[in-house]
Amino acid sequence: MYFCRLINKYSIEEMEINWYDYFMDALYKKYPKKVQLSQALMDLLFIEKEAAYRRLRRDVVFTINEIVKIASAWNISLDEMIGVNSKQVSFQMQKINYINPSIEELNYLRSIIRSIDNFRNHPSTEIMEICNKLPRQLLAGYENLNRFYLFKWMYQYGNEYESVPYSKIVVSAEKREVDQAYSQAIKQVSNSSFIFDKMIFEFLVSNIRYFHSIRMITDQEKELIKEELNKLLSYLMKIAHNGCYPETKNKINLYISQLSVDTNYSYTISPAANICFIHVFEKFEIYTLNHEMVMNFKKWMQLKKRSSIQISEVDERSRLEFFAKQQQVIDSL
User: Fold this and answer.
1) Beta bridge partners of 54
2) Are 273 and 30 within 8 A, CB to CB?
3) How remote is the C-alpha of 1 from its chain's centroid?
4) What element of type H or E holds 203?
5) Core vs surface per residue 300-310: b (16+ CB within 10 A) or e
6) Are strands 126-131 and 191-197 parallel, antiparallel or unpaired?
7) What does residue 135 show for φ and ψ, rounded to 5 degrees?
8) Among positive and negative, which fits the CA dihedral 137, 120, 108, 194?
9) What pLDDT is stored for residue 4 in this prediction?
10) Which residue, 5, 81, 102, 262, is most buried by CB atoms nearer than 10 A?
11) Taking Cα atoms as reference points, which of 127, 104, 270, 267 lies closest to residue 191?
12) Which stretches in the chain have pLDDT values below 50?
């Protein structure tokens, strides 16, 4: 196992920090309250309450297998844990079946929501995403739009032997429940920013039109998607006008990039954890918790504002022009 080989290679004296202290600190960053942390450990490791508390008191140390399982489930960097200073940054990817996820995958998605709940009300928490397709934060509340992205993902990267039409995409009740919980949780974050590719709606409408032309989407299904697109556009107009989520009044900044955006990428900075993502293969994400890389992501993404126009709260003319154009694009569908 990679982690075991690293432990053997580097003695405790050689490590820049005590890896076990780092590990324990990472646990408390994930669940600041000991009661919550012990319960999470009981659920993940299938151990009794007293066994969890003995580990937290350090009367008993976590086994290597337990450390690896926790690190994998809770996105704790093993490289950083043992203080390896290789000057290289490791990215990870969590593969998930977003249509009919397993129990383990659902637990992983729910753990993300719990993480958001832990830091959502802290004033220093910040989320930023640059995107050429609609981000999950906004899609989560729209069943047909979300289903379309899942359908497109399945068509491109799912079944290699058979193309499944939109009508056959059935999202499990558990997954819909998780989506709604995520949508509600993310709106509690104190400060969010999005930079949209100026062609973002044109890209989406073009994709819908293509699948409709090859009869993978029916006329009725296209109209359902179009209806939700109109609802989303109206919702974005409210956000842009007020500069906040209507439901929670938490700050949200919207920008339109004047240069093309290649893919979606994002970062989250909070007292509990810092993380950055590159979104790949339509629905997957590669990510790292490496602090230096997250700070670089923040710097690079903030620089993107130089070639973008802010349409939330300020520059009413640009805001009206942008939304009028998007309405024309949707109407053409």
Assistant:
1) none
2) yes
3) 28
4) helix 200-213
5) ebeebbeebbb
6) parallel
7) -75, 155
8) positive
9) 41
10) 81
11) 127
12) 1-17, 85
14 by DSSP, 3-state: which?
helix
At a CB cut-off of 8 Å and minimum separation 6, what does 184 contact? none
Confidence at residue 79, expressed as pLDDT on a 0 to 100 scale: 62
What are the tokens at 116? 């958001």
Dihedral-angle region of residue 103 (phi above 0 means left; psi in -120 to 50 means alpha; beta otherwise):
alpha
- CA dist 192 to 112, 139, 313, Å? 17, 15, 14
Residue 259 CB coordination number (10 Å): 10
Nearest to 116 by CA among 176, 175, 187: 187
Domains, the chain, with CATH or none? 2-81 (no CATH), 92-331 (3.30.870)
Note the pTM of the prediction, 2 decimals. Answer: 0.74
Q: Six-digit token pair at 283?
A: 């629905």
Dist CA 3 CA 84 (whole Å) = 11
Q: Residue 18: what pLDDT?
A: 66
Instruction: Tell me how many helices (H) and strands (E) the chain has.
Output: 14, 8
| Overall residue count recorded for the chain in this entry | 333
Task: Give CA–CA dist 116/268, Å, rounded.
Answer: 10
Residue in the block written with tokens 């802290």: 122
In this predicted structure, what is the pLDDT of residue 199?
93
Q: What is the pLDDT of residue 128?
A: 92
Q: Hunting for tokens 């995520």 — which residue is that? A: 182
Q: Residue 38 in contact with residue 49, Cβ under 8 Å?
A: yes
pLDDT of residue 179: 85
* pLDDT in the model for residue 50: 92
DSSP one-letter code for 186: H
Of residues 169, 142, 135, 167, the one with CA closest to residue 282? 135
DSSP string over 42-93: HHHHT--HHHHHHHHTTSSPPPHHHHHHHHHHTT--HHHHTT---S----EE
